[in-house]
């Protein structure tokens, strides 16, 4: 997993899973704490995430809200969009451009 960017926008690539969650949480929480306004998280380079990785995203979302900020997801890959829809988290998280539920392939 790799994360690059600053306190206003970050790009996450690789796998966000149980093995990388602690490092990702540290970087993302620092970005939330050090900035103002929306924090845009670009996931277009993310290969996969597991439940732990999704938990990191939700933790950052909550932390951003407590800091008066908003976490915005950008470039969410289709397989991750399906997971957000299945867990109904697409209704809670801010997703740039939204998710066209009807256009997602059925599994």
Kindly state the percentage of residues in helix: 25-40%
Quote the average pLDDT. Answer: 90
N-to-C CA distance: 26 Å
Radius of gyration (Å): 13 Å
Number of strands: 5
Number of helices: 3
Can you characterise this structure?
This is Anti-sigma factor antagonist. Pfam families: STAS_2 (PF13466). One of its GO terms (molecular function) is anti-sigma factor antagonist activity. Residues 10-107 form the STAS domain. Belongs to the anti-sigma-factor antagonist family. The structure is a single chain. Strands 1-2-3-4-5 form a five-stranded mixed beta sheet, covered by helices on one side. It has helices at 21-34, 51-66, 78-86, and strands at 2-5, 9-16, 39-49, 71-74, 94-95. It is α/β, with parallel strands linked by helices and 107 residues long. The protein has three helices and five strands; from the N terminus they run E-E-H-E-H-E-H-E. The relative contact order is 0.17. It starts with a strand and ends in a 12-residue tail after the last strand. It is globular and about 30 Å long.
């Amino acid at each position: 997993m790799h994360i690059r960017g600053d306190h206003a926008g970050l790009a996450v690539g690789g796998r966000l899973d149980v093995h990388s969650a602690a490092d990702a949480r540290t970087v993302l929480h620092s970005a939330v704490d050090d900035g103002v306004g929306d924090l845009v998280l670009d996931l277009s380079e993310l290969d996969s995430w597991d439940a732990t990785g999704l938990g990191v995203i939700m933790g950052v979302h909550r932390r951003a809200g407590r800091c008066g900020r908003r976490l915005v997801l950008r470039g969410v890959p289709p397989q991750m969009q399906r997971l957000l829809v299945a867990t109904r988290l697409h209704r809670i998280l801010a997703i740039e451009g939204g998710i066209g539920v009807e256009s997602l392939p059925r599994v």
